[in-house]
Design brief:
It is built from two helices and 28 strands. By secondary structure, it is mainly beta.
């Protein structure tokens, strides 16, 4: 990828994608895994852990005219199925991600997702070949998670020894961000909603800075339709405030539609390095890179003028929702930035780029 006269040596793994739906066992008998993507990642001991977003659908109804939309019912304590008629003109199936229903006056009265997502743990010794657990690590469990839980980011806080992971909780109430934690990757403690609707794409910094925790997040303005990166601070990882705009979109450019944080930022001598995602007005998603001040992460030192990586291969351009590269975690090891990313909202892929080249890329 070029940025002025500089060119990044981003190398995709030749065996991509590294995880597909064929590698993941459905969590319920008779259900189908539709896609696996957008994993948070962290090194735990000598293994790479991925916390995968796994989206599932129920077996099709006997009536071919009926579409079954899954949702979690807090009242029933289980996933139920909503029956929607495909030939009903008031039902809109034009988007693969959700179904809309309108009343006779054209007003939207229902919006449901076509699948329901949960989080699944995968482990690897070499960072490429993963063993995927058969059961979910975290599954929808309340009204805030009605349509599923998505896109986790993992932050290890050395101070208390917990791996914290935040995730998007989708529901008719809106999209909230929730927080959970674990020490052993077997027992998981939910800590509740930390950002109210509609806020997602949250990445928590891995240590306190001047006595405060920081998190990047992406609120959505309903009136002005802005979707940009903000930064907030907290004394305890649960209560967040002093919210500030951090990065805005560039009009009519590769990041002119919307931007949001992707990976948990990591520390370099030059500053906190953040790999973020951005989309243009056609919803083509790329990854970008920015550098934040080490002592004051509300200050952006540099921001790449061109994408770090953009959809080029077939597995990135074609799938459940094409032309998408979306990332929830990176590792920085041995001078390399190792990028685990969702491709075309369908599968997981891997790429890497030298850290030194990225820092040089940001100087232009």
């Amino acid at each position: 990828m070029e940025n002025g006269s500089k060119k990044l040596n981003v190398k995709r793994y030749e065996g991509n994608p590294i995880i597909t739906v064929d590698d993941v066992k459905p969590s319920r008998e008779g259900w189908n895994v539709e896609y696996v993507m957008n994993a948070g990642c962290h090194r735990v001991g000598d293994e790479v852990f991925l916390l995968l977003r796994v989206a599932e659908t129920p077996a099709k109804d006997e009536d071919p005219n009926i579409f079954l939309a899954p949702y979690y019912s807090e009242k029933e304590g289980d996933v139920l199925l909503r029956r929607l008629e495909k030939n009903d003109p008031l039902n809109d199936f034009s988007d693969s991600r959700f179904v809309l229903r309108f009343d006779e006056n054209g007003k939207e009265v229902l919006r449901v997702l076509t699948s329901i997502s949960h989080l699944r743990l995968a482990k690897s010794k070499d960072g490429i070949h993963f063993d995927i657990e058969e059961k979910p690590a975290l599954y929808p469990a309340d009204k805030y998670e009605e349509f599923g839980i998505e896109d986790p980011r993992i932050t290890f806080i050395e101070e208390d020894g917990y791996y914290y992971f935040n995730y998007s909780a989708c529901a008719s109430l809106g999209v909230t961000t929730k927080l959970a934690r674990t020490k052993d990757w077997k027992n998981y403690e939910r800590l509740g909603v930390i950002f109210t609707p509609d806020n997602k794409d949250v990445a928590i910094f891995p240590r306190k800075i001047n006595g405060k925790y920081y998190a990047m997040n992406r609120p959505a303005s309903a009136e002005y339709r802005r979707r940009e990166i903000w930064i907030s601070e907290s004394p305890d990882l649960v209560s967040w405030g002093n919210h500030k705009q951090l990065m805005e979109v560039n009009t009519n450019d590769w990041d002119g539609g919307r931007i949001g944080c992707s990976a948990v930022p990591f520390e370099t001598e030059a500053g906190w390095l953040e790999v973020y995602h951005a989309a243009d007005d056609t919803d083509r998603y790329c990854l970008g890179v920015a550098l934040l001040d080490l002592n004051d992460p509300t200050k952006v030192i540099a921001k790449g003028k061109a994408p770090l990586i953009e959809p080029e291969t077939d597995y990135e351009k074609y799938g459940f929702y094409g032309n998408v590269i979306f990332n929830c975690g990176v590792l920085c090891e041995d001078g390399m930035i190792k990028i685990y990313y969702g491709a075309a909202d369908t599968c997981m892929a891997y790429a890497e780029v030298p850290l030194a080249e990225v820092l040089d890329f940001l100087k232009d």
